[in-house]
Amino acid sequence: MEFITHNFAPIMFAGLIVFLLFGFPVAFSLGACGLFFGFVGVELGLLPQALLQALPLRIFGIMQNDTLLAIPFFTLMGLILERSGMAEDLLDTIGQLFGPIRGGLALAVIFVGALLAATTGVVAASVISMGLISLPIMLRYGYDRRIASGVIAASGTLAQIIPPSLVLIILADQLGRSVGDMYKGAFIPGFMLTAFYAGFVILLAIFRPKLVPALPPEARTIREDNGKSGLSSLLAVTVISTAAAITLGKNYAAVVSWWTGSQVTTVPTDETIVVAMCAGVILAFVLAVLNKVTRLGLLSRMAERVTFVLIPPLLLIFLVLGTIFLGIATPTEGGAMGALGALAMASARGRLSISLLKQALNSTTKLSCFVVFILLGSTIFSLVFQGVDGQKWVEHLLSGLPGGAVGFLILVNILIFVLAFFLDFFELSFIVVPLLAPVAEKLGIDLIWFGVLLGVNMQTSFMHPPFGFALFYLRSVAPNKEYKDRVTQKPVAPVTTMQIYWGAVPFVIIQIVMVGLIIAFPGIVSSGLDKEEKVDLDKVQIQMPQEAATPAEGAASGTSALPDPAAKQESADDEQKKVDDLFKK
After folding, report:
1. Boundary-marking domain end, from 259, 289, 315
2. Distance of alpha carbon 25 from alpha carbon 444, whole angstroms
3. Is 280 exposed, middle or buried (0-12, 13-18, 19+ CB in 10 A)?
4. Tens-digit pLDDT profile for residues 316-361
5. Which pLDDT belongs to residue 385?
6. Cβ neighbours of residue 242 under 8 Å, at least 6 residues apart?
7. Cα–Cα dist 509/497, whole Å
8. Distance CA 313, CA 345 (A)
9. At 14, phi and psi to the nearest 5?
10. pLDDT digits (tens, 9 = 90+) for 129-156
């Protein structure tokens, strides 16, 4: 009994692992483990009975958490977009755009995956959509099965790190930080990872071209009347829009100064990028509309189609992320606007129906309940774990590692990488992150940076053979037996599970490299965050308001010129409040 009393926290943690290994659902394992060890702790005198009375208050606190409302909003938005045919139109058009070059279809999948990630934030929707639409085309034109599978699975997991990501919402909640700041920090790493995926495909196209062939001429359906592809017109529109965006970005501070009427010298980087991109998109849309209305032939068919297909998701991205980055809306409000925008897009396409809405709402409710039940279970577990000083045990265990903060980061990332073989990102966020956050903060690690780092690492949980969920999603839609292609009428061999697993390996390695880059160059994350204003307290001056009248003037006017004690005290209180606010900043 003495051994149990002195080692109650590690025994409790080991008990949770045993519960999970038995295969019980994670939410109920967490809750059952917390309640069991809570009652044992009370009987042993390690916990006061009053501690368990805090559970109802914590549960009601979860139910009143506005931040978690963003999860059903973004989930509903993603599911409606996935069923509205947006992914199909994007893949078809971008595939035609990149098709003439080697690896073009794979590059199209990566590009569309990034766009879907920035609009849906749901991995399952992205992987299943691209698996159903692009995998048969890639197999039809001779793509290596491992490369095709890996590209689709990896591009789908971009929804993990590119805002608006569900994992970033949960990490922000568990770390006690702003969701908006977490989005800003993940903005650059998410698109760097997209560039690394595209770079890998380009290297394959250069050194192993047979693995990623170009589309044959007969498969390129978008052409001009003279037989040309019309890419020169698209390139011209891109150059004009990009030039306009860069010009606005360079002069954005002057625009803000003109708009606000006060001199502004610096503006946040993320705000500049969002506004500049929005300006470029609007200019391209105006050109396309003029070409459509006037029929002057300003744009080719390819340029016009690409513009009209890309505009809706890009505007939706600005509606969600732009309003968050500009400070107009909170993430929850941004998610609500995104869901409304998705409904409007589906309605405009003629795809919105009662059955579609029922399916989306049903799936959203299931996922939201799944998240809340895990959160309730983790709350019960963490309350008891903290009551027996489990946090101190974890802190002593991790803060004394050799290498200080770097040693802590290396061990934590190895731990997350290994646990990701067995747990998904929800479970990692609710079980492991609350134990690591206090230690990271004590070591002086910025929790926004730490959260983005963990988010990139958790992304591998979807790609790990043999338990990666993205691989399971792809396996569910990939052909498992030989079939006849509907276009060529030729037999196509199935995609085996081992081909899917081997295809994921290079992209898991890329994700690990990205984790190392974030540790080596913290500015990748911190450069997207707003700079804190530094106040020099030595230069703070407090000036008392001068009296309104002299005693002689007061006597002449028939009023007392002596200072009112109550008014003087109120003025002093106001000045003290200003000083306190400065110290808080």
Report:
1. 315
2. 35
3. buried
4. 877 787 777 777 888 888 888 888 888 888 888 788 888 888 888 8
5. 83
6. 280
7. 19
8. 9
9. -65, -35
10. 778 778 888 888 888 889 999 998 888 8
- pLDDT recorded at residue 227: 59
pLDDT of residue 568: 46
Structure tokens at 113: 């995956």
pLDDT at 367 over 70: yes
Domain that holds residue 543: 539-584
| Residue 257 domain-assigned (yes or no) | yes
The Cα–Cα gap between 172 and 182 comes to: 7
What are the residues whose beta carbons fall under 8 Å from the beta carbon of 114, sequence distance 6 or more?
A: 155, 158, 162, 190, 191, 194
Chosen domain end from 291, 315, 339: 315
Cis previous bond, 164, omega within 30: yes
Question: 3-class secondary structure for 537-560?
Answer: HHHCCCCCCCCCCCHHHHHHHCCC
Contact between 253 and 264 (Cβ < 8 Å): yes
Highest mean pLDDT among 50-64, 248-262, 330-344, 569-583: 330-344
- Rg, C-alpha atoms of the chain: 28
- The tens digit of pLDDT for each residue in 85-130 reads 777 777 777 877 787 888 888 898 898 888 877 776 667 767 877 7
Q: What's the rounded mean pLDDT across residues 173-188?
A: 85
Tell me if residue 141 falls in helix, strand or coil. Answer: coil
The token duo for 72 is 């059903």
As given in the structure block, the two tokens for residue 295 are 């029929």
Single pTM value for the model:
0.77
Q: Which two tokens stand for residue 234?
A: 């698209």
In a domain, 61, yes or no: no
Distance (Å, whole) CA 538 – CA 349: 61
Name the H helices within 223-330.
Answer: 231-250, 252-260, 269-294, 301-317, 323-325
Please answer whether residues 406 and 453 qualify as being in contact, where contact means their C-beta atoms are separated by less than 8 angstroms: no
Q: Exposure pattern of 440-472 as b/e (b: 16+ CB <10 Å)?
A: beebebbbbbbbbbbbbbbbbbbbbbeebbbbb
Q: Which two tokens stand for residue 491?
A: 């037999």
Count of structural domains within the chain: 2
Pick the closest to residue 177 from 443, 427, 448 (CA basis): 448
Cα distances (Å, whole numbers) of residue 275 to 121, 249, 251? 21, 8, 11
Contact criterion met (CB below 8 Å) for 185 and 171? no
Calculate the alpha carbon distances from 313 to 82, 97, 99, 110, 197 in Å: 12, 17, 21, 15, 21
Residue 581's pLDDT band (boundaries 50, 70, 90)?
low
How far is it, in rounded angstroms, from Cα 95 to Cα 98?
A: 5
Task: Please state, in angstroms and rounded to a whole number, the distance separating the CA atoms of residues 118 and 111.
Answer: 11
Using alpha carbons, list the distances in angstroms from residue 193 to 91, 310, 510: 20, 21, 8
- Strand-pairing partners, residue 491, are 484
Kindly state whether residue 548 falls inside one of the protein's structural domains. yes
Q: What is the DSSP letter of 326?
A: T
In a domain, 554, yes or no: yes
